Amino acid sequence: xxxxxxxxxxxxxxxxxxxxxxxxxxxxxxxxxxxxxxxxxxxxxxxxxxxxxxxxxxxxxxxxxxxxxxxxxxxxxxxxxxxxxxxxxxxxxxxxxxxxxxxxxxxxxxxxxxxxxxxxxxxxxxxxxxxxxxxxxxxxxxxxxxxxxxxxxxxxxxxxxxxxxxxxxxxxxxxxxxx
Length: 179
Hints:
- The radius of gyration is 41 Å and the shape is elongated.
- A three-stranded antiparallel β-sheet has the order 1-4-5.
- About 45% of the residues lie in helices and about 15% in strands.
- It is an alpha+beta fold.
């Protein structure tokens, strides 16, 4: 066994002379007594206003995108019906001796109303005979030799019209191209 030296007992006089220890655990008592700086309320208000404006802009963009996506989905669903009107009109006009028969008038009227409704929401048909072929807008379903009156790459016939919503192609036009 080793014997450790013991410290002498502390007297009451020594206890009174010691400085009291703060229990806050703060290393610097002066820092605790400094007043906190007042926040810059004007700067905070400007930042919050800018943040709110950004949220408004983002929300407006999301609403616009959702509206556009909804119109796109509806148009893609309606375009086959429009194609059916076109085919029915072509068939009825081929069968009738009079192109202005009541059946063709009704089909033409329904087709025009559907086209007008699509135009009102920003959906436009495109592709015309004589236009230059653009692979971003057109789908070539056939190619015919270029004649003396046609230029290579020119659309000579349209099998199915193309439709755009703004700059977005909803459906490419199916065309015959002079080669």
